Amino acid sequence: MSPEEEAQMLAELKAISNKASGSRFDNLEKKIVKTTVQTEGPNTQNTNTVNFLQGNPEDPALNQYWYSQASVDALTFECERLIKSRGPNYKVAFLSTPSIYFALSDESRAQCWVMDYDKKWESDRGFVFYDFNAPADFGAKTEELLKSFDLVVIDPPFITREVWEKYTESAHALLKEKPAYNSESGQVIGTTVAENAPFMEELLGCKAQKFRPSIPNLVYQYNSYANFDGAEFLGQTNPEIDP
């Protein structure tokens, strides 16, 4: 694919996404009810998720669309489960997934970093500016971060293979081990459309999971992917999508 064809495809995908913006996110906010009690389970409201969604409107200019509250909670609980089960040396990089990073408990977030293009979170301890066009460049923290993570969580702003290849480069640069199925420190969780399943397995060893996240302002449906067995919450269907 030529650069001109790739640019045209990305522009068309962005235009499709932008058609769904606006009123549907307003409806999502009306459904959010604050809670001061957080119990364990993927379907329990997480106060951090609520605060993130209410405090960070989507930015269509960045092709920035959030998972629903329930989907953020489910993905967050999966990450929390892994962090707590593997201990304090288990580190997670969140690539273009700030909603999950900020929904984590403070204790878990201390073992995590969030890599994102949007600098609105740059005051956070774990924020690193990230441009997928420079997949192994993490600024002044590059040397500190390379080959230091056990899990990367990825949700690119675009669904094309070319973009996923760049995120794959980032995963290879950040993970302690080469991402492969059931590797101990080369774990990947990602979300993208079902049509991308073949190259998700080819590039990252990921297989589609039962859980399909809801993204209210996107017109196409995503699947979740992981390259390891035993993904507890990703192994369950999402009642928002699959009653």
What does the main sheet amount to?
7 strands, mixed
The radius of gyration over CA amounts to 17 Å
Mean pLDDT: 86
Low-confidence stretches: 16-39
Strand order of the largest sheet: 3-2-1-4-5-7-6
Query: Termini distance?
Result: 39 Å
Number of helices: 9
Strand content: 5-15%
CATH architecture: 3-Layer(aba) Sandwich
What string, H for helix and E for strand, traces the elements in order? Answer: HHHHEHHEEHEHEHEE
Q: How many DSSP E strands?
A: 7
Inertia-based shape: globular
Count of separate structural domains? 1
**What fold name stands as the CATH topology?**
Rossmann fold
CATH class: Alpha Beta
Helix/strand-derived category reads alpha/beta
Helix content: 25-40%
Fold and architecture overview:
With 243 residues, this protein is α/β, with parallel strands linked by helices. It has one domain (3-226): Rossmann fold (3-Layer(aba) Sandwich). 37% of the residues lie in helices and 12% in strands. It has helices spanning 3-19, 23-31, 47-55, 69-86, 98-103, 106-109, 142-145, 161-174, 197-204, and strands at residues 92-95, 112-116, 127-129, 151-154, 187-193, 207-208, 222-226. The longest helix is centred in the N-terminal third of the chain and has 18 residues, at 69-86. The radius of gyration is 17 Å and the shape is globular. The N and C termini lie far apart (39 Å). The model is unreliable at 16-39 (pLDDT under 50).
